[in-house]
């Protein structure tokens, strides 16, 4: 008897779980509902595709490959450095000054790479300088700069500013790498 | 009568014994060493739960060929992103394509099977989901593997294959978080399979779980509520109360637990004790079924205690409360019809991040927002609002692009004009550059150097002053030759011979160094000339190609503009339809509530009338007691 009552109780509970046939068995309005759901899905797909096309158009228009330079920030582990902000200068002119939120810091630590700056530079040699501020070892305020001469050719140029941990020195290290 | 009602009210929370399957963030992405910066950029947005932006960038970078080193991971992520946005069809297509590709490595294949299983599960295709989930094991991470096992078991529960679900979950050892869900589901499966005692023992273990995870606290509450009501049904009020007391007072199950605790006391004839939890409920929102029932339960307890005056008072209070609530529901239905509910829902929802739902409980008591929390507790309204929000975000996105597109058109036009303005000056500059002549001179130098090398012509590598010295010595020798045989010139001849010897010795001894330096200088010259030629070609191409390139960009802007306009119209229409649908759901739900309140009100009036009838029929002392 006891089992029967419990079974009734749990079976009734399960009845409100979504089941395969629920949609078809529902009142007439469910047809409109699933049509509307399908329409929302289809619209979202179209909006994603449109945004993709616009994203590429914007880049082609504003930053053509012949002059495009992108500067990225990445972080490896981040034990010895928690980045608060980064200031970026190209040929001694400030082009980006970025303050990081907690979510962004976390995204960097998990392997995300931030496209910090996308701009245009003429062919030839340019100097890229970045200043990082944040919390260093023992929660001390930490500021470090790193510089690199970049030769801009005819194709797009990508520069990675990488914050790494050097376990031997228990210090963060800031490296710059140029990607073709 | 009351018993039937309270059991029905208490059943509602057991709809779900699993973590959210469909809309969660994509778990278990393996640690990635980024080999394409642009893939890292996608992850940067993905890790911030900005799934729409991550998907757009992923699609754009893929089409631009910037994700070559992560092609398969990127596809897997794209499928996962579509899944998280509720786009099941696209997600399924992507996973199936990955699995059809024989070169897909096993770890990507395992994850693709797993995600495909999730897509199919969310679509209610449990058989197919089961098959997909059983394919993808082996290389999954601990959490993903646990979720896979749990999904298989849930699919079996959905198909009422309790014995198989029990076999799947028995002796399973997963991470603690998932294990609790596994135990809960196993408990449910056992009870449904007729093994009530074993099932309840497992639910009891979940009900005593010590945890700080909010999700597990909620699961613990559900388990305790399930045990409490099961024990109540089984006629074990003491055991029921023990379990119900473990439910948190502030959680979503607390009202039902309080109601059940009161019924446990009532079942043990402890009516005075039952009054405490029931009266606690009366301060709560009257749309909660448990609260509605408490308005009938309190006077029932007073009546059982023989306190007829209080019973009458509380029945009257119940009738007044039901009537007032029905009035408020009427006001709210009006507000909903005029669209105010959606405005309130959009404002209250914030960005839809964690915690926003509980904040709804504290919204101001106005007709448009009063029932929002209650409505959002319903899956249908919540799903509908999610769609409405998505459409709203799309509309905003399209409006922003529409503005940008105007700027794009201006930019193309400005660029065309600037090019035309600069063209004469650029052409003039290009005309002064003669790379072909420079190239010819470079070739002559190269040939001369190679001849000198072959003949070891040391004079060819002499500096300008050395060449002058050699020329001078040649002139001296010629002059001396005219005086051949004249002894007075012997000293001069000797000096000239010595000077030539010194110069030749110097040129000869430095031959190696000089030829190496000359070779290097020629190489540098080659590079410079190459650069000049490249730039000349690029300038020529730019000169020729720029107008066409600009025109092509202009055409792209022109082509995309109507797409934005058409989509914006469709999105607005869909948003309006979605709004109407939400209003219908809300009104239907509130109408049901109003009807239920009507029924309760009738029950209260009936009970009141019964008390009055008894009082009228009773001898004078009892009648005096029953008078309100």
Provide structural commentary.
The complex is a heterodimer of chains A (180) and B (628). Chain A has 180 residues and is an alpha+beta fold. Chain A has 2 domains: 21-62; 68-179, Immunoglobulin-like. Helices cover 33% and strands 41% of the residues of chain A. Chain A has a 4-stranded mixed sheet, with no helix packed on it. A 4-stranded antiparallel sheet of chain A has the order 3-2-5-6, with no helix packed on it. The radius of gyration of chain A is 27 Å and the shape is flat. Chain A starts with a helix and ends with a strand. Residues 1-30 of chain A have low confidence and may be disordered. With 628 residues, chain B is an all-alpha fold. Chain B has a domain at 431-563. Helix content of chain B is 78%, strand content 0%. Chain B contains 26 helices and no strands. Chain B has helices spanning 2-11, 37-46, 51-63, 71-84, 88-100, 106-122, 126-135, 142-158, 162-169, 176-192, 196-207, 214-233, 237-245, 254-267, 271-281, 289-304, 308-337, 340-349, 356-359, 372-376, 379-432, 435-455, 464-482, 490-509, 511-617, 620-626. The longest helix of chain B has 107 residues, at 511-617. Chain B is elongated and about 175 Å long. In chain B, 36% of the residues are buried. Residues 1-29, 352-356 and 622-628 of chain B have low confidence and may be disordered. The chains are: A alpha+beta (180), B mainly alpha (628). At the A-B interface, helix 1, helix 3, strand 1 and helix 4 of A face helix 2, helix 3, helix 5, helix 10 and helix 11 of B.
């Amino acid at each position: 008897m006891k089992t029967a009552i419990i079974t009734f109780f749990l079976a009734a509970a399960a009845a409100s779980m979504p089941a395969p046939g629920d949609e078809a068995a529902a009142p007439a309005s469910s047809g409109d509902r699933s049509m509307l759901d399908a329409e929302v899905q289809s619209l979202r797909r179209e909006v994603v595709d449109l945004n993709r096309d616009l994203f590429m158009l914007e880049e082609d228009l504003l930053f053509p490959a012949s002059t495009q330079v992108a500067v990225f920030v990445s972080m490896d582990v981040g034990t010895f450095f928690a980045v608060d902000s980064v200031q970026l200068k190209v040929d001694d002119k400030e082009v980006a000054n970025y303050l990081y939120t907690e979510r962004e810091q976390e995204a960097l630590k998990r392997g995300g790479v931030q496209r910090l700056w996308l701009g245009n530079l003429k062919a030839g040699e340019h100097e890229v300088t970045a200043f990082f501020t944040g919390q260093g070892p023992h929660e001390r305020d930490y500021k470090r700069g790193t510089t690199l001469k970049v030769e801009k050719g005819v194709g797009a140029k990508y520069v990675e500013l990488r914050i790494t941990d050097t376990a031997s020195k228990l210090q963060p290290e800031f490296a710059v790498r140029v990607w073709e | 009568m009351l018993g039937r009602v309270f059991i029905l009210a208490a059943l509602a929370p057991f709809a779900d014994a699993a973590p959210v399957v469909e809309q969660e963030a994509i778990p278990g992405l393996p640690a990635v060493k980024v080999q394409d910066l642009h893939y890292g950029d996608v992850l940067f947005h993905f890790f911030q739960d900005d799934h729409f932006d991550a998907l757009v960038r992923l699609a754009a970078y893929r089409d631009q060929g910037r994700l070559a080193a992560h092609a398969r991971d990127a596809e897997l992520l794209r499928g996962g992103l579509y899944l998280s946005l509720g786009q099941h069809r696209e997600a399924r297509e992507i996973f199936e394509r990955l699995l059809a590709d024989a070169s897909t490595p096993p770890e990507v294949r395992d994850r693709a099977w797993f995600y495909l299983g999730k897509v199919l599960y969310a679509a209610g295709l449990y058989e197919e989901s089961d098959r997909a989930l059983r394919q993808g094991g082996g290389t999954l991470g601990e959490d993903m593997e646990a979720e896979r096992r749990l999904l298989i078991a849930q699919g079996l529960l959905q198909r009422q294959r309790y014995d198989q679900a029990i076999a799947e979950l028995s002796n399973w050892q997963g991470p603690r978080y998932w294990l609790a869900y596994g135990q809960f589901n196993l408990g449910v499966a056992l009870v449904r399979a007729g093994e009530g005692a074993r099932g309840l023992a497992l639910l009891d273990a979940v009900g005593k779980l010590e945890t700080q995870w909010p999700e597990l606290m909620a699961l613990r509450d559900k388990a305790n509520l399930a045990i409490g009501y099961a024990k109540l049904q089984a006629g074990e009020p003491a055991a029921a109360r023990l379990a119900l007391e473990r439910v948190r007072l502030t959680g979503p199950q607390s009202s039902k637990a309080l109601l059940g605790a009161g019924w446990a006391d009532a079942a043990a004839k402890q009516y005075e004790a039952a009054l405490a939890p029931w009266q606690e409920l009366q301060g709560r929102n009257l749309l909660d079924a448990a609260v509605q029932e408490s308005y009938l339960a309190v006077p029932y307890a007073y009546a059982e205690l023989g306190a007829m005056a209080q019973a009458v008072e509380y029945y009257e209070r119940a009738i007044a409360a039901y009537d007032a609530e029905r009035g408020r529901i009427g006001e709210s239905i009006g507000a909903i019809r005029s669209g105010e509910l959606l405005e309130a829902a959009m404002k209250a929802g914030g960005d839809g991040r964690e915690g926003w739902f509980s904040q709804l409980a504290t919204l101001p008591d106005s007709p448009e927002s009063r029932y929002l929390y209650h409505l959002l507790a319903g899956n249908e309204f919540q799903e509908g609002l999610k769609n409405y929000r998505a459409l709203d975000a799309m509309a905003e996105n399209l409006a922003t692009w529409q503005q940008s597109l105007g700027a794009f058109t201006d930019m193309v036009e400005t660029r065309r004009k600037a090019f035309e303005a600069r063209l004469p000056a650029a052409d003039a500059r290009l005309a002064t550059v003669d790379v072909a002549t420079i190239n010819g001179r470079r070739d002559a130098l190269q040939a001369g150097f190679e001849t000198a090398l072959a003949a070891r012509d040391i004079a060819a590598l002499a500096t300008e002053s050395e060449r002058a010295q050699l020329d001078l010595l040649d002139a001296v020798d010629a002059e001396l030759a005219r005086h051949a045989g004249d002894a007075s010139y012997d000293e001069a001849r000797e000096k000239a011979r010595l000077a030539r010897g010194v110069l030749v010795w110097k040129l000869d001894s430095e031959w190696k160094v000089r030829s190496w330096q000359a070779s290097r200088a020629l190489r540098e010259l080659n590079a410079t000339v190459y650069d000049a030629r490249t730039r000349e070609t690029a300038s020529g191409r730019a000169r020729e190609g720029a107008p066409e390139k600009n025109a092509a960009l202009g055409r792209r802007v022109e082509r995309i503009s109507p797409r934005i306009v058409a989509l914006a119209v469709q999105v607005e229409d869909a948003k309006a339809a979605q709004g109407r649908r939400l209003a219908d759901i809300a009104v239907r739900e509130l109408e049901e509530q109003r009807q239920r309140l009507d029924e309760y009100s009738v029950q209260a009036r009936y009970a009141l009338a019964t008390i009055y009838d008894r009082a009228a029929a009773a001898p004078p002392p009892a009648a005096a007691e029953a008078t309100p």
